Predict the 3D structure of the following.
Amino acid sequence: MKKNIRILKMIAHIFHEHRSKLNQELKILNMTSSEAVLLYYLYRNEGASQYEISKKMKNDKAFITRTLNKLEKNGYVKKEKSETDSRENKVYILPKAEKIKKLLYDILEKSGEFIFENLSEKEIKKLEDILNKVNIE
């Protein structure tokens, strides 16, 4: 049991360090890591509903709403009522978000490099395989 706790603490520490570095790098865009990850999701799923976003990103609806409101206020996205269900909002990317897409992708990609810098490609693949085994859906 002690090993499990130690491993979980290490995972939490890695997550915290990554989020810290990511938030530092995102300051140039005046954006938080939560906003960046949500925008990244929208680049790949434009027109998704807030419910779909909440479900796929495994965050509660209130958190997604607050984050989307910030992105909307800053001119990155717009919410529109669904044509088929008036209770549902669909979320769309605005030109301002398109302009920063490459920069955001670069920041997201580079922010985690420190985690893997001491691992070989073989070790990274093994780690990925192990994490896939314990992935909680």
In short: The CA atoms of residues 49 and 90 lie 4 Å apart.
